[in-house]
Amino acid sequence: MLSGCMSQGSPSASNPNPPAAVPSVPNSTPKPTQTGSPSEAVPAPADNQPTQPADKVLEQIKKMSINEKVGQLVVVGMEGLTVNDQTTQLISEYHVGGFIFFKVNLKDTPQALALFNSLKSTNESVTGIPLLLSVDEEGGRVSRLPDELKKLPTNAAIGKINNGEFSREIGAVLGKELKSFGLNTDFAPVLDVFSNPNNTVIGDRSFGNQADVVSRLGVATMQGIESAQVVAVVKHFPGHGDTAVDSHLGLPVVNHDLAHLRQLELVPFASAINNGADAVMVAHLLMPKLDEAHPASFSKAVITDLLRKEMGFNGVVFSDDMTMGAITQNYDIGQAAVESVLAGGDIVLVGHSFDQQVQVIQALRSAVSNGTIPESVLHASVARILKLKEKYHLSNSKAEEPDIKGLNANLSELLGKYQK
Predict the structure, then answer these.
(1) Among this protein's residues, is 321 annotated catalytic?
(2) pTM of the predicted model, to two decimals?
(3) Which of 61, 191, 237, 350, by CA, is between 20 and 30 Å from 214?
């Protein structure tokens, strides 16, 4: 994801290998033969209308209040290093479905572990539905975990090595590190094709400027993360690689049409879906050739028509952080959240500001109450989210102290094997 405070690194060098041919898909993106998504029992039908969820999930939904259901649609950030009154209120009163953590929340290993375990204890006493506990842990400059852990290479550096097994093992390291702290969701890997050298917000976060390389290495990284039973959320759909505006600060405009997108930006996402991607993050990008009025993050043309119908994605759709400048400087954050769900999204990220988090939740509650969000749409999203949590065996169990020394040793061995 793009959200959070990060230093602006310079763009990565373009992949030195000559561009490989990317198959042209003039009329549609490749459809998956088998998605393996968590919503296999809850496919996303036309216009986001749900079919019958799996029995266990259906029974769970029947027991939930409307406010508990709405809470599952929201993942929030928090202030400080410990659970405070506002954090407790987000769980007990607003029933949020999860938390995202930034570097400012994680000082060192003992503090981070205590924070995550405390949140689990607080949550267990309320709904008992496990929380999505998430970070942007990509390697390189986008890292949230405590500094005791050895730094992973950038995706650009991995792209230069251009070895699928190395990417898969790096993904497995990312997954193991998160899992060792009790985290269960990683907003990674980045599947943006780095096609604009002026794009510093992506830069070395991309595997390179060739769609086939980004596809192969990105999918391998995704599978590595998933091997540790951690949800990998591929991003930033439908492609943030050809932008010069940082969506933390403003709203980027991408003027490509579908034919161009199908040949470049969408290729890695189609590959990820074809290889069982369970979750996708949608970026705050205005794409006038697809939707003149709405950014991708709350565009029905992008989420329902393109991602779900054409590309066949049945899993969980996250928005990027709604507190980013692309949204807050141009839209009402509560209305944007409502439109994101109506467009086919499932989870709205609200990374900062307790007041804005409450504003989003209240807007969603009101929209359900007055029928703007039909109950069928709400249930479809909640079912997908609960199936995702079930598939990855999320629980309120406390994590033990991570073996930092062992994790670092494993990474050093891996880097020694592939880096010359």
Answers:
(1) no
(2) 0.87
(3) 350
Identified catalytic residue from 240, 248, 256, 294: 248
What are the residues whose beta carbons fall under 8 Å from the beta carbon of 333, sequence distance 6 or more? Answer: 322, 323, 327, 350, 356, 359, 360, 363
Query: Which entry of 246, 320, 321, 346 is annotated as an active-site residue?
Result: 320
Using alpha carbons only, what angle is made at residue 230 by residues 224 and 236, rounded to the nearest 5 degrees? 80
Mean pLDDT score, 390-394: 97
Peptide bond into 189 cis (omega under 30): yes
Contacts with 404 (C-beta within 8 Å, 6 or more apart), sequence order? 109, 148, 149
Please confirm, yes or no, whether 248 is among the known catalytic residues.
yes
**Residue 369, exposed/middle/buried by CB under 10 A (0-12, 13-18, 19+)?**
exposed
- For residue 248, the model assigns a pLDDT of 55
42 in Cβ contact with 56 (< 8 Å): no
Task: Check whether 380 has a pLDDT greater than 80.
Answer: yes
Of 2-6, 94-98, 367-371, the range with the lowest mean pLDDT is 2-6
Token pair 């990998």: residue: 232
Q: What's the mean per-residue pLDDT of the chain?
A: 87
User: Scanning the structure block, which residue is given the tokens 């980045």?
Assistant: 190
Average pLDDT over residues 394-414: 96
And the tokens for 41? 């029992």
Give the H or E element holding residue 321: strand 316-321
**What is the mean predicted confidence (pLDDT) over 289-316?**
96
Q: Please name the helix (run of DSSP H) or strand (run of DSSP E) that holds residue 99, with its range, or none.
A: strand 98-101
For residues 277 and 353, the answer to whether their CB atoms sit within 8 Å is: no
**Distance of alpha carbon 54 from alpha carbon 111, whole angstroms:** 38
Enter the DSSP assignment of 10.
P
Let me know: does 30 contact 274? Beta carbons within 8 Å: yes
Q: Are 270 and 301 in contact (CB under 8 A)?
A: no
Q: Where are the alpha helices (DSSP H) in 162-311?
A: 164-181, 211-227, 258-263, 266-274, 300
pLDDT at 174: 98
